[in-house]
Amino acid sequence: MKDFRYQALPMRVTFGAGSLKTLPEEVRTLGLQRVLVLSTPFQEDLAREVSEQLGDLSAGVHAEAEMHVPIESARRAREVAKSAGADGYVAVGGGSTTGLGKAIALESGAPIIAVPTTYAGSEMTPIWGMTEKGEKKTGRDPKVLPTSVIYDPDLTLTLPVGMTVTSGFNAIAHAVEALYAPDGSPIISLMAEEGTRSLVNALPLIVKDPTGTDARSEALYGAWLCGATLGATTMSLHHKLCHTLGGTFNLPHAETHTVVLPYALDYNSAHAPEALAALRRATGAENPAAYLRELSLELGAPSSLRELGLTDSDVETVVNMATRNPYSNPREVTAEGIRGLITKALNGEPL
Ligand code: NAD
Fold first, then answer.
1. From the CB of 136, is ligand 1 less than 6 Å away?
2. Are β-strands 127-132 and 135-140 bridged in parallel, bridged antiparallel, or unpaired?
3. 322: phi then psi, degrees, rounded to nearest 5
4. Is any atom of ligand 1 closer than 6 Å to the C-beta of 129?
5. CATH pick for 12-156 out of 3.40.50.720, 3.30.160.390, 3.40.50.1970, 3.40.50.920
6. Whose CA is nearest to atom 38 of ligand 1?
7. How far apart are the first and last CA of the chain?
8. Which residues, given as ranges, of the chain have pLDDT below 50?
């Protein structure tokens, strides 16, 4: 076994159908008195229900979370939080809402309670992201790691099937890259393997019956584990490509992860034997990259980057950006290699 360092991230997790009802108790346990409830405009009704449930503990609702946290949106939310006298934030929603909570906490240092409703995994990471003048900046700061996370699978019952699938693949992508991360460990690999197994098992069941609570629970459990692996390790080529495709070409986050993952894994597989063995165990497939592509297609996910809006003339920009700064990856990142990978993903070629 290789030497390793494992840094546990301090937080409490409450998991279970109906566990949202524990939120007021959780707010009190953390010693908070007035928490601002955050959501997207789309999930405002849910945020209002949560605020009502909190009663005097609520400092109100701010339902203006947006994808990629534009700096203006972060500034507005900071003002609202200040004038409401909030001493903490409850982020009810996906990665965009948790991201807004992080943007406020980055400045104020006040704690976040996350109530995730997708599988993006931001609630498990000390990573913040904000967009200014079209450029997304990210960083790590322990201040933005949620203090407490309430995973209530009932809240994912409304997640449309298409988003469930792509959000699930977004989570699997964290696990795949954690398995060959330079700062991985046997503990993180356990989580990555189990998270992947849970999601590949649950997603087809959810597509068959989106109201099935057992499968929804299994998927959210998998997403938690995968999110934890993202928070604990440094991501490689796949995340670099998706960051570029999202940031520069405005491609949708979870869909882009879903299309790129099999090709990025295919690029790296032969150079990451332990990761490959773990993914074989988790998926039961000899070729996990081909398996993930077939599974995503069977479950109705987009099949190519072209479908998401990328064009032939964009390929060289992606190649240049992906090869510009050196970063850790099991296989050397070459212009020729990335050109091949992106061209295959652009056309949705079989693996
Ligand atoms: P999202 O948060 O943008 O949600 C997409 C839409 O789905 C929103 O309108 C939202 O209100 C709605 N929605 C969410 N849950 C729902 C539910 N259960 N039922 C019905 N509608 C629901 O999407 P996302 O994929 O969760 O997050 C993507 C963002 O998160 C990106 O900006 C990405 O960069 C960021 N992210 C950050 C980290 C991190 O560690 N910092 C990790 C993962 C993702």
1. no
2. antiparallel
3. -75, -20
4. yes
5. 3.40.50.1970
6. 122
7. 32
8. none
